Amino acid sequence: MRMFAGGLRMIHSLDIPECPFDRRLDVVLGEALDRVEAGVVDEADLEPENTGRAARDIYDELVATKPLEEDLVFTHGDYCLPNVIVSDSGISGFVDWGRAGVADRYQDLALAARSLKHNAGPRGGEMAALFFHEYGVEDVDVAKVQYYILLDELY
Question: Are 23 and 75 in contact (CB under 8 A)?
Fold first, then answer.
């Protein structure tokens, strides 16, 4: 967890003033609407709690519950265990940068927590709590975690 959280802190520490990759919510929600309208969201591959929901319903919920503020950092966009390369000496790289750019840090925090719950079995919740602690988040914004996991359903 120390390495996984440290890798994300490293990514989030990159300077963003000149970053050309805009992944703020207005941009991402616009892309999500395009995906919904094009019918390319895989509604058969949703998280169990969203099974049976229509992509448009998810999109409408995201618009209605959009966070008022974004804590902008450089984000990986899909920070999860399979996208982190680890060697004996620590993290040696990251893959799948297709959604990287300036976004709320919870974009990565949420998907990392979900990844731990999916990949760590029965201890997933405990591992996610340890991850947040190692990252430095003591008061987790659960609503933002849920929001960014729901947003990922449309991608």
Answer: yes
